[in-house]
Design a protein that fits this description.
CATH architecture of the largest domain: 2-Layer Sandwich
CATH class of the largest domain: Alpha Beta
Order of helices and strands: EEEEEEEEHHHHEHHEEEEEEHHEEEEHH
CATH topology of the largest domain: Chloramphenicol Acetyltransferase
Largest sheet: 7 strands, mixed
Strand content: 15-25%
Number of domains: 3
Helix content: 25-40%
């Protein structure tokens, strides 16, 4: 009997998926719960498992866009493996029998052995490296992200693509490589692009800036980071201080923590802080829930957990939905200043940047201090200029005098 495998319901906000890669071939015999294919949504990469054991018939090819409930493939549950191992007969088996008996063993290996993880697959695809050329060091021979990175380093720079035979030749030949390549935009990238354009078109977005003397915070962190790690088992970074400062400031300026819903403004008495994280498939924004009730060590541990899952492409939809305010740190890439775009439907986003020693006036003297520029982009439909500037100044005060932040004054 053949059963249809359909796209399952993946969440209220997801209406379609893209078949990114088939991990099984048409005609393969698959076991129950084996991974059939990888699906891309506008939020994450997911795996589709076999509901029952059976013979696979692929209906939707790679790259196909399917709605929830559409048929992906079918499984013939009445089929059996092409050659199940049997008790050895007295006489030696014929060569054909030996070959057939080896088939199921190979079939049980063809998912893990030589198969890249989602993160590894992306790296290999970008560099044009065949998975068959990479030796997997993961469980059962699976190709890990580290394997893909090593393979990437070992591959020499590709030669320029030769021009088409009938292509016109310029009188003056261009020097250097002039190759091009095209890649299909991922569902995540298309969604990000659509939302960013919508935010620019549908919100009254403004950005206000300030500068923070990071000296006191860096001194505090340097003094206690070893003891902090010994006690809590996590590193003491800047993100926990920024998150704590933001939560305290949001409680004083609730409009910055609000959002528009139709003709109403929704004010949140909790702080679900979205933290922008760079992942193999692009920028993702997992959420630290109820950050206002967390200590610095709890914030650090949760950010570390979410960042690790982001790098492994294993974030769940629940971990990426919601959020009342966003923090993004372009400083890790060397950014001095930027105007971050609001993460709709939120009303504001804080941008962190790099820390550079700069001359500033302090007590009538010019001194050198480690300075970070911070930026707050906000929706002027909800947040007034006074409220936005006051919020950013309050964040600055907490960061420049960490004792006030820890004491909540």
């Amino acid at each position: 009997m053949a059963i249809e495998v359909k796209i399952p319901a993946l969440g209220e906000s997801i209406s379609e998926v893209v078949i990114a890669k088939w991990l099984k071939k048409d005609g393969d015999y698959v076991k129950m719960d084996e991974v059939l294919c990888e699906m891309e949504t506008d939020k994450a990469t997911m795996e589709l498992n076999a509901e029952q054991a059976g013979l696979l018939k692929i209906i939707a090819p790679e790259g196909a866009t399917l709605a929830i409930g559409d048929i992906v493939c079918s499984l013939d549950t009445s089929a059996v493996p092409s050659a199940a191992p049997a008790a050895a007969p007295a006489a030696a088996p014929a060569p054909e029998t030996v070959q057939a008996a080896a088939t199921p063993a190979a079939s049980t290996q063809n998912y893990a052995t030589g198969h890249p993880s989602p993160a590894a697959a992306k790296i290999l695809a970008e560099k044009g490296i065949e998975a068959s050329a990479v030796s997997g060091s993961g469980k059962d021979g699976r190709i890990t992200k580290e394997d893909a990175l090593q393979a990437q380093l070992a591959v020499p720079k590709a030669a320029a693509t030769p021009a088409a035979p009938n292509a016109p030749v310029s009188e003056v030949s261009a020097k250097g490589e002039r190759s091009q390549r095209r890649e299909r935009m991922s569902q995540l990238r298309k969604t990000v692009a659509r939302r960013l354009v919508a935010v620019k078109n549908e919100t009254a977005m403004l950005t206000t800036f300030n500068e923070v003397n990071m000296g006191p915070l860096m001194e505090l962190r340097g003094r206690y980071k070893e003891k902090f790690k010994d006690k809590y088992g996590v590193n003491l970074g800047f993100m926990s201080f920024f998150t704590r400062a933001v939560c305290l400031a949001l409680q004083e300026f609730p409009g910055v923590n609000a959002m528009i819903d139709g003709d109403e403004v929704v004010y949140n008495d909790f702080c679900d802080i979205s933290i922008a994280v760079s992942a193999p498939r692009g920028l993702v924004v997992p959420v630290v829930r109820n950050a206002e009730s967390m200590g610095l060590h709890e914030i650090e541990a949760e950010i570390g957990r979410l960042a690790k899952k982001a790098r492994e492409n294993s974030l769940t939809l629940d971990e990426m939905t919601g959020g009342t305010f966003t923090i993004t740190n372009g400083g890790v890439f060397g950014s001095m200043m930027s105007t971050p775009i609001i993460n709709a439907p939120q009303s504001a986003i804080l941008g962190m940047h790099n820390i550079v020693e700069r001359p500033i006036a302090l007590n009538g003297e010019v001194v050198i201090r480690p300075i970070m520029y911070i930026a707050l982009s906000y929706d002027h439909r909800i947040v007034d200029g006074k409220e936005s500037v006051s919020f950013l100044v309050r964040v600055k005060e907490f960061l420049e005098d960490p004792a006030r932040m820890l004491l909540g004054i």
